[in-house]
Design goal:
Pfam families: V-set
Oligomer: single chain
CATH architecture of one domain: Sandwich
CATH class of one domain: Mainly Beta
Structural class: alpha+beta
Keywords: Membrane, Transmembrane, Transmembrane helix
Shape: rod-shaped
Number of strands: 13
CATH superfamily of one domain: Immunoglobulins
Helix content: 10-25%
Protein name: PDCD1 protein
Number of helices: 2
Strand content: 25-35%
GO biological process, one term: positive regulation of T cell apoptotic process
């Protein structure tokens, strides 16, 4: 009975695999089983797993055994540092109680998880936030540019509209009094420019004085007169003389 490899050094979290080869000169089909043992710090060996000739595979939480007659395989899963020690296999044949054969011992050394992997993962994790920060800054710059463009467009539109409302630079106010008379008043723009045009309504209080009735003018009339002249008398010598005088 032989075991290989002779030594393994693996990190935590990995798995270790050992093979045990049995050689029987006269295999008469007798039953046997293969046991696996672990020995730590010169202490007494402990049986950790077993597989018989008629079973092809068996598995526990920690070990997985496979029968490849005449080779038997054992896998030690999810290694921890306390799995370090010496491992060997033992062949036990039935009907021959005194027939026990053991292999040599193989050494397993489980080391701590590599520090390189522990440092690389944070660096990769640190790299991802940097990309997010760059993307966020780019988004903020784009948003700021859009806001500036919107403000510029709003101011341009507002000043253009204000100039169209008053041709000579003033603002036009529409004032209504209660009598329905519309007044127009034009103001000069203040020193400080403004960006809005306000419309206001001014209300005037009625005059409390007694209204003066309008003057009445006589109606123009056309009058007609008849002039009657006296009938003329015939001219006599006496009348003619008086007329000459």
């Amino acid at each position: 009975v032989t075991i290989f490899p002779a030594a393994l050094t693996l990190p935590e979290g990995d798995k270790a695999t050992f093979f045990c080869n049995i050689s029987m000169e006269n295999d008469s089909g007798s039953e046997y089983s293969l046991n696996w043992y672990k020995k730590t710090n010169h202490s007494q060996a402990q049986k950790i797993a077993e597989i018989s000739r008629n079973i092809s595979m068996t598995k526990t939480e920690k070990y997985r055994l496979t029968n490849h007659t005449p080779v038997f395989e054992i896998e030690i899963l999810n290694l921890h540092q306390n799995d370090s020690g010496s491992y060997y296999c033992g062949l036990i044949t039935f009907f021959e109680p005194d027939k026990v054969m053991e292999s040599n011992q193989s050494q397993l050394m489980v080391t701590a998880a590599p520090q390189m992997n522990a440092t690389e993962e944070p660096e990769m994790e640190d790299g991802n936030p940097s990309e997010h920060i760059k993307a966020m800054l780019l988004g903020i710059l784009l948003l700021a540019g859009v806001v500036v463009l919107l403000i510029f467009g709003y101011l341009t539109f507002t000043y253009g509209r204000g100039g169209a409302c008053a041709g000579d630079g003033g603002y036009l106010w529409m004032l209504n009094d209660p009598d329905g008379v519309t007044l127009q008043e034009e103001e000069k723009p203040p020193v400080v420019s403004i960006s809005t045009v306000d419309y206001g309504v001014l209300e005037f209080q009625r005059d409390q004085c007694t209204p003066v009735p309008p003057e009445t003018w006589p109606v123009e009339q056309t009058e007609y007169a008849t002039i009657i002249f006296p009938e003329e008398k015939p001219v006599t010598p006496e009348r003619g003389k008086k007329h000459l005088d």
